[in-house]
Structure formats: C-alpha cells, structure tokens
Amino acid sequence: MTDVAARAGVSVGTVSHVLNHPERVRPATREKVEAVIEELGFTPNANARTLVAGRSSTLGLVVADLGNTLFVEIARGAQREAYARGTTLLTADSDNDDDLQATHLEFLDRTRVAGVLLSPMADPGATVDRARRHGTPVVLVNYDTGRDDLCTVLVDNDRVGYLAAQHLLGLGFRRLAFVGANHVRLQPVRDRLAGARRAVAEAGGRASLLEVATGDVRPAGGRTAGREIASMPARRRPRAVIAVTDLLAMTVVQELLAAGLDVPGDVAVMGCDYDTRGWGGAVPLTSVHLTGQEVGREAVRLLLEEAAHEAGHVHRTVVVAPQLVVRASSAGDRAPAADGPVPDLPPPTPHLP
Amino acid sequence: MTDVAARAGVSVGTVSHVLNHPERVRPATREKVEAVIEELGFTPNANARTLVAGRSSTLGLVVADLGNTLFVEIARGAQREAYARGTTLLTADSDNDDDLQATHLEFLDRTRVAGVLLSPMADPGATVDRARRHGTPVVLVNYDTGRDDLCTVLVDNDRVGYLAAQHLLGLGFRRLAFVGANHVRLQPVRDRLAGARRAVAEAGGRASLLEVATGDVRPAGGRTAGREIASMPARRRPRAVIAVTDLLAMTVVQELLAAGLDVPGDVAVMGCDYDTRGWGGAVPLTSVHLTGQEVGREAVRLLLEEAAHEAGHVHRTVVVAPQLVVRASSAGDRAPAADGPVPDLPPPTPHLP
DNA sequence: CGACGGCTCTGAAACCCTTCAACGACGACG
DNA sequence: CGTCGTCGTTGAAGGGTTTCAGAGCCGTCG
Question: Measured between alpha carbons, how far is residue B29 from residues B9, B23, B44 in Å?
Fold first, then answer.
C-alpha cells in the first residue's frame, strides 16, 4: 500500500480511502490511485484489515461429514444465504472426527470470523463456549443440545413422520408399517415415529401402524425387515411402509422386489432424509426430505442476527419444516420419475468444456 | 497477549515464546504463563500471526458446485490429505457461478492462504494469474487448460472408457454400445469414447462398438437412447451398454426395464463418473468411478510442494487413474449389492444422539 | 577473582492496514 | 478583504503478533 501511495503521489491514508470510502476522495485522485493499484497489481491484505477491524465479515461452517448428502445441502443453503447477504462462507469438513471438529472450530475462532455455524454429530460440549467467550457467535445446526443459551436450527422430525404417514393414508392405504421403530434412543427416530403414530391415530380406527424393528440403522438393517415384510401373508402384510431412513427404505425395496413383490403395486415404500442414492433406481423413492438448504439458510440468518447485536441478543431455536417429495415408490403409476421436478437435481458431470 | 504478559509478570515476547518455542523458556515461567493463558481464556489472533509471517498455512479449495458428488469427493480427499499433513483446508462453493468463483479465489488470495485448489467449470482465465502474481500458488483440479505453467490434477478419461469397455469385453460381451457418443465437443466424452474404441479395437474383429447419440447429456437424453436400444431386434441389439455418464446410464436402465427387458440379463449397462444416485436402485449400477478423493489428495500434495519451493518449482500435471466398481447392472447375478464393499458408503442420517 | 559462555528473558521494530484528528486550500459570504 | 465552512488530504496511532539483537544472570574455567 505504501508503494501505491508513493507511486500515486498521495499518502497511504488516501489509498485506504479509495479502497473503503471512495466518496471521500476527489474523482481525479481516485482514478489516479486506482490506476496505480491496477498497474502494481496490488491486493489488500485481508489479515491486516481484520486485525484493525477486530473481526472479519466471513462466516465459517463446520460440518460433521461432507460425505453425508444432508450436510452438503446445509452447506449449499448456507452458502447461498451468505452470498445473498454479501458475505463469504468457508466450510470445514470434520470428517466424522470430533477432535478435528474442535480443531476447526478453534481455528475459525482464532481467525476471528464473524461467526460459526456448527453442525456436529455429537454434543460439542465446551468447545462451543470457548469460542463464544471470545465473542465468536456460534449457531448450532441440526443438532439439539437442549440448551437455551444458543441459537439452534432444527428439522421438525415429528412432522417428518407425520407427513410420511399422512401421505400414505391419503393414498388410501390403511395398514402401514414403520421400519426402524426400535431405535428410539435416537432422537430423530423417536420424533419421526411419534409423528407417524399421531397421523395414524388421527386417521381413526381403521388405520394401523405396525412397528418393525431393525438390527441396525445402517442399510443392512433393511434387509431383514424387508424379508420379514415380504414373508407375511398378504392379508396381514402392511400395504405401505415408512422407513425411518432413505437408506433403509432402499434396502427394503430391494428385498421386496427380490421376493417377487411389486413396489408400489403390492407394497408402497417411502423413506425420510435426503439421500440421493434412492433417487435413481428402477423405483425412485418417495421420501420426506430434510430440507437441508432451508436449514442452512435459516442458520445463516440467525448467525448474522446474533453477530449484529453484540449484546442483547435473544437466543432462539428455529424449526424448519421438512418436505414431502413423491416419487414412484409410492405413486400409483410406476413411470420412472427421474425427469420430474426433483428438487435440485445436480447437473451431470462431465462438466469440462 | 499484553494482558497475559502483564498478569504473568513477563514480557509479550516471552508469551509469544511460550506459544511458539516452548523449549526456549524455563519450565517454571512457561507454566506460569500457560496458567494465565488458561485463566484469561486467551486465544491468539491468527490474523496478526499471518500478518507477521506473510502467509498462513491454511489451504483453500474453490469448488464449482458442491451439489455434484464428484466435487464433494474431491473436497473430502483434499481435506484428508491436508489434515494428514498438518494443515487446515477451507472449502468455498462457487455454486456454478463463475463470478462467485473469481470472488472466492480473490478472497483467499487477500487472506494470504498458503495456496488454493481450484476446481472450475470453465476456463478460469486470468483470475488465476492475479492470485499467483501475489505469490498464492494455485493448483487446477479436474480441469485441463492445456497450460504448462500451472500444476494440474486430472482424471484419465481415456482410461475411464478403456476400463469400461474392457470390463464388458471381459465378461464375454461382444456387441457393445456407447451412449452419448455424439457429445465429443466435451473433452471428457471425447476421451472416454476414444478409450472405449481402443479397447474394442484391441479385442479384435468380433467385437463392435455401436455409437448411440443422445440429444442431451442430462438424464433425459438417456430416455431416447434407452428406447432406441430396447426397440432394436434382439439379434442386432447391443448386449452391453456403456453410458458416458452415470446419470445417462440410470435412465437407460429405467427405459430398458420399462420395455420389459432384463438388466443385465438381456442388456448389461454401466456408467462412468461418481454419481451416488445410481447406487441404491433395484439394479445398482456398475460404473468406472472418477476417484475424486485421490484427485483431491494428489492436488494437495502438488499444492504443498509448490508452496514449499517458492521459486524453482517445476509445474506438472498429474493424471489419476479411475476405478472400476462392479455392481449388479453388469454382473452375472442380480443380487442386490448395496451391502457389498461399495467405496465410502456414507453413514446414515439420522445422526442425532 | 575475573572473564567468558549459556540460558532466559526483554524491548522494540516490523507486518499492513484503518481511522481520526488536524491541516491546508478554496469558495462563499459579510 | 478578512472570516468561516467544506472538502480533500495527511500523518500518526493502533491493532496483536513474531523475531531478533541484546541485556541480565548464573555457573564454569583459568
């Protein structure tokens, strides 16, 4: 900057003004300075700026695992909202490692970002408080600590289950099943199950919800559940299945098909979450999507709000609504739906010119 | 830091030493300073440090679109390599916007990161040079500019096509088809086709490669191609299909199934890329995967190497091998393979406690 | 007993920018 | 023609850290 000032025949203060308060400097001077900046290829040092300002305007996002489609959606939504509001979002992937997550959080704290979005896998504990003590606002994303001294964005998992059951009931199915019902120690499972039960209860006496256990929340769990359902006599067999996870739903579908049953002709199946792997199969999967983008957006709003009102900010929890997306696995017709208006179908690679 | 120094009764220089060169300070002093640091909750300001050092040790990654699974894999691989080498990787998503991409690159340049990985959609042009003029090394990822004054990491697309055709030929299929062959203006398509042709040529006279055009690289293009193949008389119909894209392959499969053909019984199908949407269907898709993680890893290695040898660094292009992953759509048996050793199957949401 | 070498620790400069009080010039006004 | 206000510009302070030359101090050796 000194070089620019010297070469333009002005003081560094003036160069700074050209950069940050162009209106304060006479057009002639400004143009001269700008010309020199261009000529010298000068780029201001963001660190020095932040050092003076005390805090940068960048936002950080620490995500538990970018391999999980939901977190990617959260990152995309957050990125868009941040951009719309004139800031930059930097994402750090903790790769399922709590220590790394803490490291990333501390790094962003050290670098004095305007605020951090944290989407953890487990309770982050005191790590968050350390950052906040330095004045780095933190918003918790997609994880419920139950704390009320922290802004939080959550998906309404009760509504996830409710929407799923409501959809199937609305199609006229009465005998429903809920696969994965035994994993109620996982809060989202608990909530989804509760929502599904409520919808069934509201539908009156003719509707029922069979709760099917799985050994595992991972795909393998759907295997046994799928076989169990397939082997039931047709009169007792559930007519429609809600799996607590898209991944479980996918394996249930595979087992049903392998047993010679038709999906959705004999059994309709649907999942929850936002797992793109269910979208492209022969029977694209109906699902209640966790609206990750909306979660990310809302989180950025909350974070900027908190960052703006240093003190006197009231922490709150925003609950985002999930969204039902109907595909072939529950629809009446089996036409492949991949061309349909699936939300945010990523563009295809190859993307080279 | 001044506060810490005062409270510990030492000078700021000593506090700095405790932080960066603990061996230079007497244990007693060190412990006292550390105690005060803890007591005061002091966290060093990374900006000030970078300001002095001239450059931080953080790496930046600017990615064209996080909605694309391949870029996510690149980010994950890069993250892991960076972590293994003791640095931090910050990812910025350009959301398919070239201007935003340039903005992100400039931002990282301003913030004086150790280097930037850039995975663009189109030729980034002079943006890159601006950053490099300030001494910010840039490595181009998954995009071939043809420049030799830049380190680049590419996937061997010729080998993608070659591996695909070789796999099918190895299974005994002779009449192959290549779907999407008309999009040769896209460099990856051109290379993949060339590789496939070569494998077929090497197989001798009895093997053939029917080149099928699609109106579009997007999924819809697979529709017409699939119908076209399905409607051919069985004797002329290709026995195995390579689609230039996983997404195309998925829709081809859907059309074949809809026409009453069996996959892979009547027609085997495979794709290329790394699109997870093809993994979970009733007929999980065989594919030649672009090994995004390896690309990301290699890119970080290159970048750190360039960052280390300020001058006298020889730019080079590293070509990463793709990887054949066999699933049901080409295998002899149709057993669902989702439990098999699919590379990097993400863990399931729900991930709350 | 004095000189000398090692350890520790200090203080100040340097890093690059922003901001703010103050200053000079210039036009308007009385 | 002197005074006042504005506008544009300046110069220095300040922000948090690292680094480096040097100052004390203690022990050792001659």
Answer: 9, 11, 19
Count CB neighbours of A172 within 10 A.
9
Residue recorded with tokens 């085997």 = B268
Q: Which residue of B has its CA nearest to A157?
A: B350
Rounded to a whole number of angstroms, the distance between the first and last alpha carbons of chain B is 39
Contact list, B133 vs chain A (CB under 8 Å): 41
In the structure encoding, which two tokens stand for residue A244, read together?
A: 């607590």
How many percent of chain B have pLDDT more than 90?
Answer: 61
Cβ-Cβ contacts under 8 Å, B289 against chain A: none
Interface of A with B in 291-330 (CB under 8 A): none
Q: What is the pLDDT of residues B129-180, one digit of tens each?
A: 999 988 899 999 999 998 989 999 999 999 999 999 999 999 999 999 999 9
Tens digit of each residue's pLDDT (9 = 90 or more) over B175-204: 999 999 998 888 889 999 999 999 999 998
Distance A49 CA to D11 C1' (A): 19
Q: Is A51 left (phi over 0), alpha (psi -120 to 50) or beta?
A: alpha
Say yes or no: A271 contacts chain B, CB-CB below 8 A: no
Tell me which protein residue sits closest to nucleotide C10, measuring alpha carbon to C1'.
Answer: B11
Overall pTM > 0.70: yes
CA nearest neighbour of A142 among A197, A88, A187 = A187
Question: What is the sign, positive or negative, of the torsion defined by CA atoms of B129, B135, B136, B137?
Answer: positive
**Residue of higher predicted confidence among A32 and B309:** A32
Record: contact B223-A106, CB cut-off 8 A? no
Average pLDDT, chain B: 88
Residue B280: the pLDDT is: 66
pLDDT beyond 50 at A337? no
Helix (H, G, I), strand (E, B) or coil at B137: coil
Q: Which residue has its C-alpha nearest to nucleotide D16's C1'?
A: B48
Q: Is A352's CB less than 7 Å from nucleic acid strand D?
A: no
CB burial of B283-302 (b: ≥16 within 10 Å; e: otherwise) equals bbbbbbbbbbbbbbbbbbbb
